[in-house]
Design brief:
Layout: H1 2-21, E1 24-32, E2 42-45, E3 50-53, E4 59-64, E5 68-75, E6 82-88, E7 93-94, E8 97-99, E9 109-110, E10 120-121, E11 129-133, H2 134-137, H3 145-152, E12 156-158, E13 173-175, E14 183-187, E15 190-191, E16 221-227, H4 232-235, E17 242-248, E18 255-263, E19 277-288, E20 293-304, H5 331-352, E21 365-380, E22 383-399, E23 423-441, E24 444-462, E25 477-499, E26 507-525, E27 544-545, E28 548-549, E29 566-583, E30 587-598, E31 602-616, E32 619-630, H6 634-638, E33 641-647, E34 650-656, H7 662-666, E35 675-688, E36 692-709, E37 713-714, H8 728-734, E38 744-746, E39 748-770, E40 773-791, H9 795-798, H10 801-807, H11 810-817, E41 823-833, E42 836-845, E43 848-850, E44 869-871, E45 874-884, E46 889-896, E47 952-960
Parallel strand pairs: 1-7, 1-8, 14-17, 34-38
Antiparallel strand pairs: 1-4, 2-3, 2-5, 5-6, 9-10, 11-16, 12-13, 14-15, 16-17, 18-19, 18-47, 19-20, 20-21, 21-22, 22-23, 23-24, 24-25, 25-26, 26-29, 27-28, 29-30, 30-31, 31-32, 32-35, 33-34, 35-36, 36-39, 37-38, 39-40, 40-41, 41-42, 42-45, 43-44, 45-46, 46-47
Length: about 950
C-alpha cells in the first residue's frame, strides 16, 4: 500500500512539473505610439478566463497550457483597443503591442457629422469636430461635464450661476456663442432629452431650455465629439450651433478615482477656504459569452459645498428706514442725528448677530449621484441588441436675496426679527433608457431604436415666510411644486455603401431614416400657502400694512398655483435622406435633407451641403452650407408663474404668462414659431509631418425669428409712485390683477434676427524627448461675435414706441451680443517623464460686456455711464502633477486657477456707501446707481466669463486594474 501511494504521489508530482515545463509563455511589452511603456494595460484572451496586466515597465507574461491559435485583446483607458491572433506552439513567444494614443495624434475615429460607415478621423471629417477623450476629462480637478468642457473646448462656454432660482442647479451652456437650446446633445448617437427648467432669471441663456450635461457621470464617458457646424438637416431640431455626442464606455478595466479639494483664495483681503468638493467614481466593462456581448457600469458621486464671494451690505440702517431730513434742519444737524441712529442700529446688529455679509454669492450646495449602464449583445455577425440606461439624483440648496427687517411687506418680524436669508432647495431626478438593434438586411445596414428620457425638478423653499399670513402663523418651509419634462424618440436608420470600379464616382453612401418623437411638459402646483395671499381655504384674508399689500406666497420663490398647472404634449414626425459621394481619393461631397412636421406649429424642411477637397498631402479644404431650425420648446410655449425678482436691487412681483394667455394677445404677440437659420463654414484641416495636426474653420450663422424672453413690462407710475390709470400695461394687468399686487409682466415671443460669425483654430504637436519622455503641446482658440440685426414685436408693439423699447431692452440685447467671451484661447502642455506627468493649461477668457436696461449715455436719463461696464480679458491657469506609483495606482495633486485670478470688480458708485449719511438729495445714499445690489455683488453675475471662486487646490487618487 505504501509503495502504491508513493507511485501515485510521484505521478501527480511529475504531471505538475511537466505541466509547468511544457506550458508556453507569451511575453512582451505594451507601449504607446511614441515608444513609452504603458503600465496597467489589460491583456485578455478572448473566450477564456485568462489574462493579465502590464507591470510598471509595461511588460507582461501569459502562460498557455495548450498549443493553438488564440485571440488576444489589449486595452488601456484613453487608447484604442487592439486585437491580434496569436499562434502558440511548443515554444514560448515574444510579442510587443503598440496602442495608439488617439487624442495625442488626433487619430480617433469620429461618428458625428456623417452617416457613412467609412471610419474618419476628426482631421479627415468633412465638418469641424472636436474630440475629447477620457484622459482629457480626468486630467484636471473639474468633476462635472459643463465645467470640464468650458476649459477644454474653446467654442464651448458655461459657468455656474448664482442667486438665480433653479438655474443655480443646472448650468446653461453655449456653443459658438449661441443659446443653450441651440445645441443638440446625443448619447451614443441618440437624442438626449432637455431639462424641465426654463431659465427666467437674469442670467446668460435667459428664456432658454438646455440639456443638463452634468446628469451624465464623467466616469461613463469614453469620448465626447463636439460637432461645430449646423446639423439640423441630419439630426433635427436644436442643432443650429452644432451637436455634442457623448460616447459611453464599452469593455474597460476596473477604474476607480476619488478626489478632494477646496478653495484657497485670498480675494477681497480675506482668506477663503470654502467650496469643499469630494468626488468618487467607478467604472468597469465586462465582455461575456465568448465576446458576443459586453456591459459597462459607471457611477459617480459629487458633494460640493457652497462658496460665498459676496460683499458687505452698504445700507446705512438695517433695522429701520433712512430718516427724512427736516425742512428747517441743517445738514450738520441731520448728519449728526443720522449718525446717532446708525450707531444704535450697528450696535443692535452686533448684539443680534446680523452680519452685513448677509448673502451667499457663489456656487450653491450640491450633491450629485448617478450611474450609467451601456451594453450590447451580438446575436449574429449581422444582428445585435444594444442598450443604455442612466439615472441621476441631484439635490441642491441655493440662497436668494436677504430680507432685511426694514422690508416690512416681505417679512414677519415675530418669526425673523433680524431678517432672513431664504433658500431654494431642489431635488432633481434625471432618467433615460435607450434600446435598439443594429445589423444588416441584405446589403443595407439598419439601426432601429427607442429612447426615453425624463427630467423632473421639485422645489422646496426653506427659511422663509408667507408674509401675507397673520403675524406669527406662517410656516418657514414650503413645497412650491414640480416641473417635469418627458421625451420619447423612435428612430429607424438605413444606409448602404455603393462601390464603383472606375468612372466619375468611386463610392456613394446612401442613408434614409425616420423619427417619431413625443414631448410632454408638466407643471404641478405647490401647497396652498406657498402661493396664497392669506389662506383662502381657511377664510383667512391677506394681511395689509396700512393700505399696502404684503407679498403673497413663499418669499424668494412663490409656489406654482393650480392656475399655473399644465400637462401638455406634442408629437413630431420626420424623415431624412443623406447622400455622401467620393470622387476619387481627393473629393468628397455630401447632401442631406430633412422634413419635420410638428403637431402644434406645422412643418419645416432643412437641407445641408458639405464638401472636402484634398489639396496636397494630408491637407484638405472643407466647407458646408446648411439651413436649420429650432422648434419652440413646450416650456417656452406653456411655462407660466408668478415670482419675486429683484430689479435694480428692489423686489418686484413678476407675472410670466404663456403663449395661450389673453394678455399675450393684448400685446399683439402671436403664437410661437420655429427659429430658422442659415449657416456656412469654410476651413482647412490636416497633418504636417507625423505629429503636427491643425484645423482652421470660419463660420457664419444667420438666425431669424429667435425666441426671446421679453423684458419686464412694468406698471406705469407717476414720479411720486402712484399708478397711472390710463397706462397701457396697467390696463392690461388689471384684467388679471385688479389689486395691483403684480408689478410686471413678461412673455416669450419670436422677436429678433441675429448674425453670429467666428473662427475656430486647433493646433497640436507632440515632441519625443527620449524613450520615456514626451511633450504634447496644443493651442486652441475661438473668435466669436453675435449681432442683433433687427427687433420685431408685432403690429401693436411696433406702433407704440414705449412698448417697442421695452420688448427687448439694452440689457437683454447684451445677453445675446456680449455676455459670453468674444474670444477664448486654450494653451496646454503635457510633459511625461517616466512615471511623472506634468500638465499645465492656461485659458484666456475674452472680454464680456454688461449693458444697463436704460441707456446711461443719454444725459436726460441722469444715470452714471459706469452702469455699462466691460470686463477685461483674464488668463486662468491650471497645473497638476501625476505620479504612476505602479501599474495600478496614480497619485495627482494640483491647483485650478493657481494664480487666484478674478474678473474685474463691478463699478461701485460713491453714493453707495454705508457711511454716506448725507441729507442732500443729489448726494445722499442710494444703491441703484450701480449693479452691486447695495454692495452685495462684487463681481458680475449676469454674464458668463469664468466665475469667481478663485484658486482651488486638490488631490486625486486613481486606480486602474
Amino acid at each position: 500500500m505504501i509503495k502504491t501511494l508513493q507511485k501515485i504521489v510521484f505521478v501527480v508530482f511529475f504531471l505538475m512539473i511537466s505541466n509547468q515545463l511544457f506550458a508556453q509563455v507569451l511575453k512582451g511589452k505594451v507601449t504607446d505610439s511614441a515608444g513609452l511603456v504603458i503600465p496597467g494595460a489589460t491583456l485578455q484572451v478572448i473566450g477564456l478566463k485568462l489574462g493579465t496586466s502590464t507591470d510598471s515597465n509595461g511588460k507582461y507574461a501569459i502562460k498557455f497550457q495548450k498549443t493553438g491559435t488564440y485571440k488576444l485583446r489589449v486595452s488601456f483607458t484613453g487608447y484604442q483597443n487592439t486585437e491580434a491572433a496569436i499562434q502558440m506552439d511548443s515554444s514560448s513567444k515574444t510579442t510587443d503591442f503598440v496602442l495608439m494614443d488617439t487624442k495625442t495624434l488626433l487619430q480617433n475615429v469620429v461618428v458625428i457629422g456623417s452617416r457613412s460607415s467609412v471610419p474618419r478621423t476628426n482631421i479627415e471629417s468633412v465638418v469641424p469636430v472636436d474630440l475629447i477623450t477620457t484622459k482629457d476629462v480626468k486630467t484636471f480637478a473639474q468633476v462635472d461635464l459643463t465645467q470640464i468642457l468650458n476649459y477644454v473646448a474653446p467654442s464651448f462656454s458655461s459657468n455656474r450661476q448664482t442667486v438665480a432660482d433653479g438655474t443655480d442647479h443646472i448650468d446653461p451652456a453655449s456653443l459658438r456663442g449661441l443659446g443653450p437650446d441651440q445645441v443638440l446633445v446625443l448619447v451614443n448617437g441618440k437624442r438626449r432629452h432637455t431639462t424641465a427648467l426654463v431659465n427666467i432669471n437674469g442670467t446668460f441663456g435667459r428664456g432658454s431650455v438646455g440639456t443638463d450635461l452634468n446628469s451624465i457621470p464623467v466616469a461613463a464617458i469614453e469620448r465626447i465629439e463636439v460637432l461645430r457646424d449646423g446639423a439640423a438637416a441630419q439630426y433635427g431640431s436644436d442643432a443650429i450651433a452644432g451637436v455634442i455626442n457623448i460616447v459611453l464606455k464599452k469593455v474597460t478595466p476596473y477604474s476607480f478615482s476619488t478626489s478632494f479639494g477646496q478653495s484657497d483664495s485670498k480675494a477681497l483681503g480675506r482668506d477663503f477656504s470654502d467650496g469643499r468638493t469630494f468626488q468618487a467614481d467607478f467604472s468597469k466593462g465586462w465582455a461575456f459569452n465568448n465576446d458576443k456581448g459586453f456591459i459597462n457600469f459607471a457611477g459617480q458621486y459629487i458633494k460640493r459645498e457652497y462658496t460665498n464671494r459676496g460683499g458687505l451690505d452698504t445700507r446705512p440702517l438695517l433695522y429701520s428706514a433712512a430718516p427724512a431730513k427736516g425742512a428747517l434742519e441743517t445738514e450738520a444737524a441731520f448728519e449728526a442725528r443720522y449718525a446717532g441712529l446708525k450707531a444704535a442700529d450697528d450696535a443692535r446688529a452686533a448684539a443680534n448677530g446680523l452680519d452685513r455679509n448677509n448673502m451667499r454669492v457663489g456656487n450653491s450646495d450640491s450633491k450629485n449621484g448617478g450611474f450609467f449602464l451601456n451594453g450590447q449583445y451580438n446575436f449574429t455577425k449581422n444582428s445585435n441588441l444594444y442598450f443604455a440606461a442612466g439615472y441621476t439624483h441631484k439635490t441642491g440648496s441655493a440662497a436668494g436675496f436677504f430680507r432685511l427687517p426694514t422690508q416690512t411687506t416681505q417679512i414677519d418680524l415675530t418669526l425673523f426679527p433680524n431678517g432672513f436669508l431664504p433658500f431654494i432647495d431642489t431635488k432633481i431626478n434625471d432618467l433615460s433608457f435607450s434600446i435598439g438593434s443594429k445589423g444588416k438586411i441584405g446589403t443595407w445596414d439598419y439601426d432601429i431604436s427607442n429612447t426615453s428620457g425624463e427630467n423632473n425638478i421639485k422645489f422646496n423653499i426653506n427659511n422663509t415666510v408667507n408674509a401675507s399670513l397673520p403675524l406669527g402663523t406662517s410656516p418657514t418651509s414650503f413645497y412650491a411644486g414640480e416641473l417635469l419634462f418627458r421625451q420619447n424618440t423612435s428612430n429607424l436608420d438605413l444606409s448602404k455603401k455603393h462601390e464603383f470600379d472606375g468612372g466619375f464616382i468611386t463610392s456613394l453612401n446612401t442613408a434614409f431614416g425616420g423619427e417619431f418623437r413625443v414631448d410632454n411638459y408638466q407643471i404641478k402646483p405647490g401647497e396652498e400657502l406657498s402661493y396664497s395671499f392669506g389662506q383662502p381655504s381657511a377664510g383667512i384674508p391677506g394681511r395689509l400694512i396700512g393700505t399696502s399689500f404684503t407679498a403673497a406666497g413663499a418669499q424668494v420663490f412663490p409656489g406654482f398655483k393650480p392656475g399655473n398647472a399644465i400637462d401638455k404634449s406634442r408629437n413630431n414626425v420626420s424623415a431624412y435622406a443623406d447622400f455622401e459621394a467620393e470622387f476619387g481619393p481627393r473629393v468628397l461631397i455630401e447632401a442631406a435633407g430633412r422634413y419635420e412636421k410638428y403637431s402644434d406649429f406645422g412643418s419645416n424642411f432643412s437641407y445641408k451641403f458639405t464638401g472636402k477637397v484634398k489639396l496636397f498631402g494630408d491637407i484638405s479644404l472643407r466647407g458646408a452650407y446648411a439651413t436649420g431650425f429650432r422648434a419652440p420648446s413646450l416650456h417656452q410655449r406653456y411655462f407660466n408663474n408668478e415670482s419675486t425678482q429683484f430689479v435694480a436691487g428692489n423686489p418686484t412681483q413678476v407675472l410670466t404668462v404663456n403663449n395661450d394667455n389673453p394678455i399675450v394677445g393684448q400685446f399683439g404677440v402671436g403664437s410661437l414659431k420655429p427659429e430658422i437659420s442659415r449657416s456656412g463654414s469654410l476651413g482647412l484641416a490636416g497633418k504636417i509631418a507625423k505629429t503636427f495636426t491643425f484645423t482652421i474653420d470660419a463660420y457664419n450663422i444667420d438666425i431669424k425669428d429667435r425666441i426671446v424672453f421679453s423684458s419686464q413690462y412694468a406698471r406705469e407710475r407717476t414720479s411720486a409712485g402712484a399708478l397711472i390709470p390710463t397706462g397701457v400695461v396697467n390696463q392690461i394687468l388689471n384684467t388679471v390683477d385688479p389689486n395691483a399686487q403684480v408689478n410686471s409682466v413678461q412673455f416669450f415671443t419670436n422677436a429678433i434676427t441675429t448674425n453670429t460669425a467666428g473662427l475656430d483654430v486647433v493646433l497640436t504637436n507632440k515632441f519625443y524627448l527620449g524613450s520615456k519622455s514626451s511633450l504634447l503641446l496644443s493651442i486652441a482658440g475661438n473668435l466669436n461675435k453675435t449681432v442683433v440685426r433687427s427687433i420685431n414685436g408685432g403690429d401693436k408693439i411696433e406702433s407704440d414706441p414705449t412698448l417697442k423699447a421695452k420688448l427687448f431692452d439694452r440689457l437683454e440685447r447684451s445677453r445675446y451680443e456680449s455676455s459670453v467671451p468674444k474670444n477664448k484661447l486654450n494653451i496646454t502642455a503635457n510633459l511625461t517623464v517616466d512615471k511623472l506627468s506634468f500638465v499645465a493649461r492656461t485659458v484666456r477668457f475674452g472680454e464680456v460686456t454688461y449693458l444697463n436696461a436704460i441707456d446711461p449715455n443719454i444725459p436726460s436719463n441722469n444715470l452714471p455711464v459706469q452702469l455699462d461696464q466691460t470686463f477685461t480679458p483674464k488668463w486662468v491657469t491650471d497645473f497638476s502633477v501625476s505620479y504612476a506609483a505602479n501599474k495600478i495606482l496614480t497619485l495627482t495633486v494640483g491647483a485650478n486657477n493657481i494664480f487666484d485670478v478674478y474678473p474685474d470688480k463691478l463699478y461701485t458708485n460713491p453714493r453707495n456707501n454705508a457711511n454716506n449719511l448725507s441729507g442732500i438729495p443729489t448726494e445722499n445714499y442710494t444703491g441703484n446707481l450701480d449693479n452691486t445690489s447695495n454692495g452685495r455683488f462684487l463681481y458680475p453675475r449676469a454674464i458668463s466669463q469664468f466665475g469667481y471662486s478663485g484658486r482651488y487646490v486638490y488631490a486625486k487618487i486613481g486606480c486602474t486594474f
